[in-house]
Amino acid sequence: MPFDKLFEEQLDTLKAEGNYRYFADLTRQCGQHPRAKNHHDGETRDVTVWCSNDYLGMGQHPDVVEAMAETARACGTGAGGTRNISGTNHHHLLLERELADLHGKEAALLFTSGYVSNWAALSTLGSRLPNAVILSDALNHASMIEGIRHSRADKVIWKHNDPEDLDRKLARLPANTTKIVAFESVYSMDGDIAPIREIVEVAEKHGAMTYLDEVHAVGMYGPRGGGVAERDGLMDRITLIEGTLGKAFGVMGGYITGSAALCDFIRSFASGFIFTTALPPAVASAATVSIRHLKASEIERAQQRRQVARLRARLDAEGIPHVRNPSHIIPVMVKDPVKCRMLSDYLMDQFGIYVQPINYPTVPKGTERLRFTPGPNHTDADIDRLVEALSSLWRQCALARATA
Ligand code: PMP
After folding, report:
1. 163 vs 141: CA distance, rounded Å
2. Which residue intervals define the domain Aminotransferase class I/classII large in the entry (predicted)?
3. 217 lines ligand 1 (CB under 6 A)
4. What is the Cα–Cα distance from 242 to 117, expressed in whole angstroms?
5. Catalytic residue numbers?
6. Which strands make up the sheet holding 209-213, listed edge to edge?
7. 4 CA from centroid of ligand 1 (Å)
8. Backbone phi and psi for residue 33, each to the nearest 5 degrees, phi listed first
């Protein structure tokens, strides 16, 4: 086609840099989490998935699957419209109530994904509030960055997880600005956790709102899975908590929670909420069941923590370098895009282990990594097998080992 050359030139650059994305063609096997079938070159083989964000396997929990199937049978597939024009289903409202309760807030608002919720909420806050300035952690997710950019509000970037830098930057802002501090709890690529208490204290001192993305923490932390803010007893001090239904809850969709006025404001002005078809009712009802389950059950979280600790200990024993962080995410640093892809390919081809290489632009150049997310359904034997495979590849590729 006449324009293809324009596209291909840039794709060729990506390929030459080792940053072109190849997707694994998987069929997940319901009830056998974390097993999947991988389809490649006309062949199908069994693999163990090590990089899923269905962190607790809830996407295959029988109650969650049943809720989705039953609601699809009862209500049909799609919502039938935007939330405003015939698309609000009772299951959306039940889910919003459940989410508000999860975070101890007055209200919640659903979006079609976590990406859309960040984009829509931040672009609305930044564009509609008087003299808005958004203070954004340096490592915030692309969805927050895009929302801030789209808002055209003034943006100030503060050093990652550094409340003192935030304090200095807030102090410089004129009194008549509406200040919004945007940050995450668990950062997905390094697995570090924000000092939420200190950040909230600094924000309060300067009369700033707080916007917290708990996408990688909801369902995972806190006695009811309300996230790191719940664990640390800080939910009531955060203006807006944003989350996803697509990771630990195993379904799909995004949301914000906050005061009734805040949610009504976003509901009334956010184009990313207003002008798009609502989530299927079956998705909403499956998410509600998943959230209720994780509010009441500690079993999945406890078993997952055990497997995370076990994998870390085994990696240490073999000297495989990994990032030490307080979360459930284990990044194994390779620091080279080509080697990162090669390791991922070898793991798949030689061992039936699937872990996606994480390359630029998802992480900065030179910090390429394999990101492991052990779940409650990875067995001890899975962990042993993974570490043996990594150890043998480390030897084959002459990669540096960590010294204790
Ligand atoms: N925020 C963060 C920090 C994320 O990592 C992601 C997705 N990986 C999102 C938001 C978007 O969530 P979703 O996948 O539900 O669109």
Report:
1. 18
2. 46-390
3. no
4. 7
5. 247
6. 107-111, 254-258, 240-244, 209-213, 178-184, 132-137, 154-158
7. 31
8. -45, 130
Distance CA 118, CA 310 (A): 34
Query: CB burial class (10 A; 0-12, 13-18, 19+) of residue 24?
Result: middle
Residue 371 in contact with ligand 1 by CB distance below 6 A: no
Q: 33, exposed or middle or buried, with CB in 10 Å at 0-12, 13-18, 19+?
A: buried
What is the amino acid identity at position 91? H
Residue nearest to atom 15 of ligand 1 (CA): 114
Judge whether 347 and 353 are in contact, CB under 8 Å. Answer: yes
Euclidean distance between CA atoms 240 and 263, whole angstroms: 9
What ipTM did this prediction achieve?
Answer: 0.99
The answer to whether 294 touches 225, Cβ cutoff 8 Å, is: yes
144-186, pLDDT tens digit by residue? 999 999 999 999 999 999 999 999 999 999 999 999 999 999 9
Cβ of 230 less than 6 Å from ligand 1: no
Closest approach atom of ligand 1 to CA 253: 15
Determine the distance separating the centroid of ligand 1 and the alpha carbon of 47, expressed in angstroms: 25
What's at 94, amino acid-wise? L
Using the mean position of ligand 1's atoms as its centre, give its distance from the Cα of residue 117 in Å: 9
**What is the Cβ-side half-sphere exposure of residue 46, based on CA atoms within 13 angstroms?**
5
pTM: 0.97
